[in-house]
Amino acid sequence: MLYLIGLGLGWKDLSMKALEALSECQEVYLETYTSASDFTPLQLQKLLGKPIHQLDRKQTEEDLVFLEEADVKNVALLVYGDALAATTHQEILQLAKKRDIKVKVIHAPSVFTAVAETGLSLYRFGKVTSIPIPNENYKPESFFDVLLENQKINAHTLFLLDLKPNEGKFLTIGEAIKILLDINQKRNENIFTGETLVVGCARLGTSESTIKAASADELSNVDFGKPPFCLIVPAKLNHKEEEYLSK
Amino acid sequence: MLYLIGLGLGWKDLSMKALEALSECQEVYLETYTSASDFTPLQLQKLLGKPIHQLDRKQTEEDLVFLEEADVKNVALLVYGDALAATTHQEILQLAKKRDIKVKVIHAPSVFTAVAETGLSLYRFGKVTSIPIPNENYKPESFFDVLLENQKINAHTLFLLDLKPNEGKFLTIGEAIKILLDINQKRNENIFTGETLVVGCARLGTSESTIKAASADELSNVDFGKPPFCLIVPAKLNHKEEEYLSK
Asked: What ipTM was estimated for this complex?
């Protein structure tokens, strides 16, 4: 049996159900390359009283040793956030089902709902998208198309900002704003300018969460501290949202 | 201090963080009119070892005794799903902040991410909306407009189906389909017909979750058992989604 278990957003977001499942697992893996939290793998290992094997991208997506093991024993794969919020983890579920390996998904708190802490209505969010860390050979723009689509139906856009914890790299809110401004200019759009109202969030759902609303230009210069980060470009605010964000 | 605590989707989704907070609370309230789960308030009371006061709509939204108490002692308000996924609960957070009452939000698993169990990509969902239980004087259609908007940007639509646990009423998936068919016909649209592919879900995130994909006509006749229910009208499926749903 494979237990696909969400760790949630912060320390001790693990559920009673997750702890019970973990107590029955012979092997515990932790996927460490798609996200991070306010605790270390070592702290988690102490909490569980079991050794935790950390998995990088290749081990999670290609080697799949944990999946083979799950055919003959109880194996837990721990992931940050909800168990299925990242495409990678949803694909593991699908792969396990294809191979007739039993899977139990244990859900956990996710940034998808924690963004409600901003005061923006969850029911007004459109498609969620990610902004990857760009490099010389990789400068995608598909997230900008999602912004255009969402604005078309007057929906808020949540951008999850990429991080590579294993390499100590993470996209800051200032960098994400710069990327959006550049694409806007390159495409001759008028949808994301220095005056656009944006909401920056760091460490949502933890005791150290930070939420700030301001123009893109102003927010670029704010230090949000440690990741994970997300950026929201709201649609036209309704009265309640405006009142709450103004604080 | 007010602790706004999510119970998650099923039994023992309560997190370690939530249990620690609850151990410090002098009063524990449970909001019982917006949703339900696979356990009873009595089971929860036994688990926590504390009396739980159940709140109906008036007590939660108007009387607000729990909020007054939170000014002088530690009070927990337990809600099904995530702590902030329902508009009502987000408004309580805003009200508490307005009155300068300290609030701590403790997130939990939500249907917003549990829908990933269907194999549909979370990043392809548009706005989420609810279908209320209609009556003689109340037949809203705004959820149909959300479907139209989402289809415009090729996004999946998640409909949460209303339930009134205190009155033993809940909208079934068959009833929701009938409502959507009727509005489609009345408006002379061609967006939701008997042939439209839909996905019905019951008790997502629990050990008894049921997911079925079929045409609207076929799904109308399926018995999904106990609530909560939701209905998804997918946008055009991508290859992976199609492959997964076909099983």
From this structure: 0.96
